[in-house]
Amino acid sequence: MKRIAQLLIFSMCIGACSSAFAQGTIEAQERFLLEQAVQNNLNFKAKERRIQQTEIERKALWQRYIPRIEADALYMYFDARMQADAQTVQIPSALLPLPPQIGGLLPPVLTFFDGESDFTTWGQAATAGITAKMLLFSGGKIPMALKAVKHKESAEHFMLRAEKEELAEEVLSTYEQYWLLEHSRLLLDESRKRLQKEQERVEKAIAAGLATPFDRNKIQVALLSLEAKEEEYARNRRLIVQKIALLTGLPEAEIPAPADSLAPCREEAQAEGSPEQRPEWQAIEARYHAYDAKLRMERLFFLPKIQAFASYRYAVVFQNDFYTDYRLNEQAPPLALHLDKFQLQPTWMVGVGMKWTLFDGMEEKHRIEKAKIDREVAAQEGEYKQQQLQLAYQKAQTDWELANKVLSIKKQSLEVSRHNLTLASRSYAQGLLSVTDWLTAEQDYARAELEYHQAIVEQRKAYRAYLRASGQSLFEAVNK
C-alpha cells in the first residue's frame, strides 16, 4: 500500500514539472532577498557602528597634532600669616639713602630677624590668559598607534564581510529549499488528481465485476497517506517561510514566490582565487599587524615627547596690605605697606618643552611583555585558523567535484527511469505486465525526478561553498 501511495503522489506530474523547470530563473528573487537580509540585520548595524567607533579613534589620534587653545581666568582674596626665623642682619641707618628728617628718627643700627619675625598680608588678586599648546613629537607612538588602529579597522571590515557571506549562504540555501518544497507541492496536487481519477475508475470496475474492493481499499489508503504528506508539507512550508522572514525582515506575505526553474551550475565552472583572498584570512593578517604595531609602539617609550607652547596673560594684585613687627624705634608703630595695584600686562611666553621618562617603575616593561604575548597569541590563533581555511578550500573543491558527479549520475538515473516507465506503460497496456510492476516503475521514476532536483540544489550549494572557500563573494556571484 505504501509503495502505491508514494507512486501516485509523485509520478503523474513529472512531465509538467520538467517543462516548468525550463522556464524563468531564481536569481532575481535571490538578489532581492540578499539585499533585504543585509539591510535588516541588526547584528550588522551594530558592527557597523563599532567600525565607526574605530574610525573616530583613528581621527582622534591624528587630531592630537592639532594645537590646543585654552583660556583661563582667576579671582581670589587672600589673607596670610607668616613667621620667619633667619640669621640676624644689622644695617647702619647712616648707610640707608633716606632724607635727613627720616634718618634722624632711626636708631644708629637697624636690626632685622632678631628672633622670630611675624608678617601679615591680605588683599585681592586676579589673572586671565590664553595658552596654546601643540604636540611636535610624540616619541613615535602616535604613528604606530595609527597603524594599529588602521589594521584593527581593516580586520573589522573583513570580519563584517565574512559574516555577510555566511548570511548570504543561509538565505540562498533556505530559499532554494523553499523552491524545492514548492515544487513538491506540484507533485502532491497532481498525485491527488491521479488518485481521485483512479478511484473513480476502480469504482466503475467494481460495479462491472472487473475489480475487487481490495483494489478500492488500496487507493483509499493511498489517499490517506497523501493527506498526511500534505499536512507535513504545510508544516514545513510554514517553518521555512518564517525562517526567510526572520532572515530578511520581510513580512511573510511579501516573500516572493520561488521562480519556475532552478538551473544547475556549469560543471566546468571553476572558482578563481585562493583561500588567501577570503575575508577571514585577510582579517587574521590585519589583526596580527595591529598587534605588531601596538608592540612596536610600546617599545618606543624611551623617546622624548616634545611640545610647543605660547601664552598671553594678564595679572594684577590690588588692595594689598602688608604688616610686619618691625619698628623704626620704640615709639614708632610697626612697619606696614599698602599696595593699591601691582599689574602685569601683557605677559608673553613662547617656548618648547620636552618630557623624557627615564624610569617608570617597570610599568613600560610589563606593557611591552603584554603586547608581545598578544602578538604571539594572534599569530598562533591566526595560523590555526588559516590551516582550517586551507582545509576548507580543499574540502570545498572535492565536494564540488563530487556534486557534479552525483548530479550526472542522477541525471542518467532519471533518463533510465523515464525509459523504463515508457516500456512498463506500454507493456502494461498490452497486458504483459502486472499492475504492481507498473507501479514500481512509476515510483522509481518519481523518486529519480525528486533526487535529480535535490542534486541540483546540493550542486549549487557546493559551488557556493567553493566560491566562498576561494575568496569569491556570493553577492557578486548572484549579481552576475
CATH class category of the largest domain: Mainly Alpha
- The tally of structural domains comes to 2
Beta fraction of the residues? 15-25%
In terms of structural class, how would the helical and strand content be classed?
Answer: alpha+beta
Main traits of this protein?
480 residues; alpha+beta; Outer membrane efflux proteins (OEP); 2 domains; 11 helices; rod-shaped
Topology record:
Layout: H1 2-10, H2 14-21, H3 27-39, H4 42-62, E1 68-84, E2 89-92, H5 100-103, E3 109-112, E4 117-137, H6 141-207, H7 213-248, H8 279-298, E5 305-327, E6 334-355, H9 363-429, H10 435-469, H11 474-479
Helix pairs in contact: 1-6, 1-7, 1-10, 3-6, 4-6, 6-7, 6-8, 6-10, 8-9, 9-10
Description of the structure:
There is one protein chain. The chain has 480 residues and is α+β, with helices and mostly antiparallel strands. The protein has 2 domains: 342 residues, Outer membrane efflux proteins (OEP) (Up-down Bundle), CATH 1.20.1600.10; 124 residues, no CATH class. The chain is 60% helix and 19% strand. Strands 1-4-5-6 form a 4-stranded antiparallel β-sheet, with no helix packed on it. Strand 5 and strand 6 form a beta hairpin. The protein is rod-shaped, with a radius of gyration of 46 Å. The protein starts with a helix and ends with a helix. The N terminus is likely disordered.
